[in-house]
Amino acid sequence: MSHSSSPAGVRALADTTPSSTGRQRLADRWLPRLVLSPTIVMSLVFVYGFIAWTAWLSFTESRLLPRYDWAGLTQYLALFDNERWWTAVANLGLFGGLFILCTLVVGLLLAVLLDQKIRAEGALRAIYLYPMALSFIVTGTAWKWMLNPDMGLQKVLNDWGFANFTFDWLVDPDKAIYTVVIAGVWQSSGFVMALFLAGLRGVDDSIIKAAQVDGASLPTIYRRIVIPSLRPVFFSVLLILSHIAIKSFDLVMALTGGGPGTSSDVPAIFMYQFAFTRGQLGLGAASAMMMLMTIVAVLVPLMYLETRSAKRG
Amino acid sequence: MANKLSVGRLLVYAALVLVAVYYLMPLYVMLTTSFKTLDDIRQGNLLSLPQAWSPDAWSKAWSSACTGIECGGMKGFFMNSVRMTVPAVLISTMIGAVNGYVVSMWRFKGSDALFTMLLVGCFIPFQVVLLPMAQLLGWLGIANTTTGLVLVHVIYGTAFTTLFFRNFYVTVPDELVKAGRIDGAGFWTIFFRILLPVSGPIFVVCIIWQFTQIWNDFLFGVVFAAGESQPITVALNNLVNTSTGVKEYNVDMASAIIAALPTLFVYMVAGRYFVRGLTAGAVKG
Chain centroid to CA B138: how far? Predict the structure, then answer.
C-alpha cells in the first residue's frame, strides 16, 4: 500500500497561497481532523473498546447476564475442557484446510484455462462468478436440497441406473463437514479465479514468447515462470480464504446447522450458541477471543510475507 | 497458441464448459424445483423439468409460507432487508467518501496511523463485538429493530468504504486539487466541486459492495433482530430449517431465489463493477 507523497504538498500550498484568508487556512487545518474524528471515535469504541469488553467478559463468571467480577481463566479452562469446542476446532481445521486448498486449485486452474484466448470468456467468467453475489444462506439452502439423501443427486444417479449409489454425507456425522467444503468451494472458487486472472493478465507476454522460442512447452512455462510470478496474488488469496474459513458461520448454519448432532460444529457456531441461545456469556466471550487470536495468528504472518514479497517485486 | 494442437484446445473448452455446467446446476435446480408441485418433485428427480410449470410455490413463498410461528411468507422480511440495506449502504458510503478524501488528500500528522487503525476493523471476526453490541443496543432501546441493524452495519462497514475511497483518491492527479487550492477553494469546495464529479465509478463500486455485503449478512441479522424485524436471510434460514409438517422444497427454493434476486440483479446489471469491488476489497490485504 503506497502512500502518495503529494498531499503534503497540497498542505504546504495551503499555508502559502495568498488568496486563502486566515479564517479559511484555519478551517483547512482543522476540518480534516474534525471530519475524520467521528469515525475514529467509532472505531475506538466499537472495535477496540468492544474487543476489550469481550475480553473482560471472558475473564468473568457471566452466564445469562453479564457480571464483571474477576474470575481469571475459568472460562478458558472450561472451554478447553469442552469436547464440543474441540470438535469445532477440528472441523475448522479440516474444513479450512480443504476449502482453501480446493478453492485455490480450482480457481487457479480456471484462470489458467481462461487465459488461453478463449472465445466467450466474458460469459464463462460471469458464470463462474455469480455465486459470489449470493448469500451463503442461499448457497446453503440450494446445496442442502441437492445433497438431500433421498431426493437429491442420489436419486438422479439412481434414476440413471446406478441403483446402489448412495450419497448421504449431509446426514452422516463423519461426512457432514465435507458437504460444507463442497458448497464453499462452489461459492468462492470463481472469485479466486477472478483474482488469479487479473494477476495472469499482468504477466509480461514477451517472457512467455521467449520461453516458447527456447522450446519450452506451455505447461512448463506456466509451472516454472508464470505461476511463480503470481506470488503476491497467492498471498492475497490465502489471506481472504483463511479469513472466510475462520469466520464461516452462515454456510454451516444453512447447510447442516452444525449437525447431525454437533458433528459439523465450527467455532463461530459454538460462539453463537453458547453466547446467545444457551446463556453462557463468559464461555461465548472466551470462544470469541480464541477466534480473534486465530485470525491474528493466521493473518499477521501472511500479511508480513505479502508485504515482503511485494517489496521484492 | 491458437493453432497448436487443436485437440488440446478442444479439451480446454470441454473443461471450461463442464465447469460452467457445474456452476449453473444449483441455479437450474433451484429454478426448476420452485416451479414444480410436491408430487412432481417426488415423481421426478433433481434434474427433470417440471411436468407443468406451477407458480404456486412462488406465491406461497412470497405471502404465506411459515417461518417459525409467523406465516406471512417472505414479503415482510424482504421489505425489512430493503429498509435495512438502503440507509446502511447510503450512510456508510457517504462517510467513507469523506473519510477517504481526508486520509488521501488532507493527510496530517498521524493520519496514516489512524487510517491503519481503522483498517483493523476490516479484519476482526465480528463474533468479538457481538456481546457488547447486543448490550448497547439494549441500552439504547433499539434491540431487535431495523434501526439497530442499520447502525451496526454503518459502524462496521465504514472501514471498508473508507478503504475503497482512499485507494481511489490516491490515484487522482494532484494537479486537479492544487489548481483548486490556488483558486482559493477550501476543504469542502474541493471535495464537492473537484473530486465528487470524478468519483462516479468508485461510488458505484462501493455501493454495490456494501449492498451485497449488507443484503447477504446473516450474523448481525440473527443476533440483533428477532421476530418481525428479521432480515430476509434469517427468515429464509428459519423457513428452511423449521421442520413442521411436510417439507415443501419448492417453497424453499422459491424463497431462496427471492432472497437472492436483488444481489443477482445487481450482479447482472453491473457485473463489471462488482468484480472490481471484489478485487479492490481483496487488494486491501
Answer: 26
How many angstroms separate the CA atoms of B133 and B125, rounded?
14
Q: B93-132: per-residue pLDDT in tens?
A: 999 999 999 999 888 889 999 999 998 888 899 999 999 9
Q: How confident is the model at residue B71 (pLDDT cuts 50, 70, 90)?
A: confident
Judge contact between B132 and A289, C-beta under 8 A: no
What is the interface pTM, i.e. ipTM, of the complex?
Answer: 0.91
Angle at A238 between CA A232 and CA A241, to 5 degrees: 140
The contacts of residue B145 (CB under 8 Å, 6+ apart) are: B225, B229
Distance from CA of A10 to the nearest CA of B (A): 6
Contacts of B255 in chain A (CB under 8 A): 141
Q: Mean pLDDT, to the nearest integer, of B5-17?
A: 87
Classify burial at B178, counting beta carbons within 10 Å of its beta carbon; exposed 0-12, middle 13-18, buried 19 or more. middle
Report CA A50 to chain centroid distance, whole Å.
Answer: 22
Q: Please tell me which residue of chain A has the smallest CA distance to B213.
A: A135
- B249-283 vs A136-146: helix axis angle to the nearest 10? 130
The Cβ of residue B162 has, within 10 Å, a number of other Cβ atoms equal to 30
A213 and chain B: CB distance < 8 Å anywhere? no
CA A86 remoteness from chain centre: 21
How far away is chain B from the Cα of A225, in angstroms, using its nearest Cα?
17
The answer to whether residue A66 neighbours chain B at the CB level (below 8 Å) is yes
A5 touches chain B (CB under 8 A): no
pLDDT at B4: 54
Q: Inspect the interface and report whether the beta carbons of B187 and A28 lie closer than 8 Å.
A: yes
Q: All domains of chain A, ordered by start, with CATH?
A: 6-58 (no CATH), 74-311 (1.10.3720.10)
pTM for the structure as a whole: 0.90
Kindly report, as residue ranges, where domains of CATH 1.10.3720.10 are found in chain B.
Answer: 75-283
A contacts of B18 (beta carbons < 8 Å): none
pLDDT of A222-262, one tens digit each? 888 888 888 888 888 998 899 899 989 999 999 998 888 88
Interface membership of A118 toward B (CB under 8 Å): yes
Torsion B191-B192-B193-B194 (CA) sign? positive
pLDDT for B234: 95
Return the percent helix, strand and coil in chain B, to nearest 5: 75, 0, 25
How far, in Å, CA of B225 to CA of B210, rounded?
Answer: 19
What lies within 8 Å, CB to CB, of A244 at 6+ separation is A99, A184, A188
pLDDT the model gives residue B282: 52
Q: Write out the CATH class of domain B75-283.
A: mainly alpha
Q: Which of residues 90-109 of A touch B (CB under 8 A)?
A: none
The one-letter amino acid code at B97 reads A
Contact B124 A51 (CB under 8 A): yes
| A1, pLDDT greater than 50 | no
